[in-house]
## 1
Amino acid sequence: MQLECKTVYLLLGSNLGDRRTIINAAVELIARQIGPIILRSSWYETAAWGNEDQPSFLNIAIAISTNKAPAELLTETLAIEETLGRIRKDRWGARLIDIDIILYGDEIIDLAGRLQVPHPRMQDRRFVLEPLAEIAGTVVHPILQQNILTLLSSLNDNLAVTKLI
């Protein structure tokens, strides 16, 4: 049985290597293996969160259309990270590529510690909300019942996030 297509929002980031090339490669693989890209944010330079003693990140948010179930989507994004050289060593450590599932339609998903959607800390992180607001400002967080622009305007995170030209 084929699932109906959902609009899914992903955040991609890199703080090692040729960050832009790696993120662009991830976007191409996502489009090929998961579903077409509907929207793509500008590039954002962001200070590292959690472990600040590392290079800054380059981030973008994308919206995709996919008929993949959440568990399959997670498997696919992790495989793309691995294909592009991601090695999981330190939590919040430096990485070639990071692909986070931020929103999956308006669904609330909890796959026993493997995946939580909406991303459980998205509303606390400027590096997530800035690029997401650019492409999904009016989208409503299914738990908090506030749109992304409202969440961004009430955010207390002062981490540096700079939109690049």
## 2
Amino acid sequence: MSTPAASGPTAVTVQILDKEYRVACPPEEQEALIRSASFLSKKMKEIRDSGKVIGTDRIAVMAALNLAHDLLASRSENESHSSSLSGRIKTLQNKIDAAIHDAKQLEL
């Protein structure tokens, strides 16, 4: 019995700021690519419509900077939450260990 061959990337057409782009993408990532392109286009339209930035290249760079800033802020926040959660887990583990130790002492 033969297994199906893995299909390679296929061209997907996405629209960003009223322009079409063809992008090679594996089939399993096409939906994510389309959502990403739509999100980027929305952000670029917001910048364009603000009237503060003129030119597609500048709009793209500003959108990229804003998205990079948001990503880094999110990562930092996640690291902070992770660190806090790790501390809380360690505290709970210590309480559990102490409770088990106390229970063993009562058995003696």
## 3
Amino acid sequence: MKKRGFTLAELLIVIALMAIMATVALSSFTKSQKKGRDARRKQDLSEIKKALEIYYQDNFKYPDGFSSGGSLSHPTIEGVVYMVKIPSDPKTGLKYYYEPVDLRQGFRLYAHVEYEIDSNYSGGGGDCGAKSCNFVVTSPGTALP
């Protein structure tokens, strides 16, 4: 009578193939997470930029700064809020770096993206926490750093 079952070699091959498939799936999932966080960062910076442009229309200058998690409000007129809560980085929770330029007639907003690096930005400027800033959004007419 012959026993039925798998040999040790067959089991090892199946386990190795499953490990390879799991590694590929995890890699794709990680890449998707990074892309999702990058999309969120870019959307956050776009929303902050819109609020800053409305602020500029009312004040003829950009603010000195703002705190992430705080609000962007009119400095002298009560009740005018341009952005109720300034968003922060979805992974680290750190604020996006804001830099007023040209005597507050322009600005730069910096972030650290994980996957899609801005090819127009050469680096420099901004403090994005433990990692260097590699993405920037500017006011109209403001040069890249």
